[in-house]
Design a protein that fits this description.
Length: 283
């Protein structure tokens, strides 16, 4: 078939179509990023109500809001479970450790753990969309409560890549889409991440916003890339009970549907998913 006939059968996307595609993708990404803003306010409400001790959450919130007791309790369970697993990992005998927080948003775990003296010989790397990490860096750069907890923050060398917002020996902040594995892996190498060191990868209500294929690819990429890794997943389940139906409708309404919740609706289905994708023990 000639080049011309091939072009006729498969016409190139016009500039107008490209703009529409990018605009649609941008709207979806913005909606997902908006869940970060809502989540950090809820976490702040939970901490202010005395459920969980984290004085750094409020540093990322310009305007607080009081959530219902049900929301506070839900976020308390979430915060406590993740805090327990992070501290368990940090207390292991390994000399050098790494934590990769996938879709970190405005999470304050690094600052909380650092203030407690638990970040020692640890690389803590946070990853999210570019817009989110730029906003987070702006907060950190103008807040001495936060930047004083990052050794070497004011003596960093120039950025090796525009997607790297912060790159100190201890704390990294990267702006990259988690589905872009090659770019992500290249950035991690630039930042000095060692793929053979003990590594905890944290996904806190992140993969559920991806398609089944994309989210499973992230898990498989992590398993194949890190030779000594722990993957901590905290995600919504039980989509078909009364609360699950309400929750799904809420996220659809705000434009950030839970794309994976029906593919992996239970704890058992999540366990089976990991067992199919990785060759390590799954709990």
């Amino acid at each position: 078939m000639s080049e011309w006939s091939d072009l006729w059968i498969k016409p190139r996307i016009t500039m107008e179509q490209q703009k529409k595609f990018k605009s649609g993708k941008s709207r979806r990404e913005t909606a997902v990023q908006g869940t970060n803003d809502s989540s950090i306010v809820s976490k702040c409400s939970m901490a202010a109500a005395g459920y969980f001790d984290d004085p750094f959450l409020k540093e990322f919130v310009s305007k607080t809001a009081k959530r219902s007791p049900l929301i506070n309790r839900g976020y308390y369970i979430r915060a406590t479970a993740i805090d327990f697993l992070l501290k368990k990992f940090l207390s292991s005998d390994s000399k050098k450790k790494q934590i990769l927080s996938l879709g970190a948003g405005f999470d304050s775990a690094y600052f909380r753990l650092k203030s407690q003296g638990l970040i020692d010989n640890v690389m803590f790397c946070e990853i999210d969309f570019c817009d989110v990490v730029k906003r987070k860096h702006t907060v950190i750069s103008t807040n001495s409560t936060l930047n004083s907890l990052i050794p070497g923050y004011f003596t960093q060398s120039e950025k090796d890549d525009p997607l790297i917002e912060i790159n100190t020996d201890e704390y990294k902040l990267l702006g990259v889409d988690l589905t872009q594995h090659n770019t992500l892996e290249a950035l991690l190498k630039i930042c000095g991440i060692d793929f053979d060191n003990p590594t905890l990868l944290l996904s806190e209500c992140v993969l559920t916003y991806m398609t089944k294929r994309c989210s499973s690819n992230v898990i498989q990429w992590a398993s194949e890339t890190f030779s000594n890794s722990t993957f901590v997943l905290y995600e919504q389940i039980n989509p078909n009970d009364s609360f699950g139906l309400f929750m799904q409708n809420h996220f659809r309404t705000i434009g950030s549907a839970l794309k994976c919740i029906n593919a992996f609706p239970t704890m058992d289905s999540q366990l089976q998913r990991f067992k199919q994708l990785v060759s390590l023990n799954v709990e």
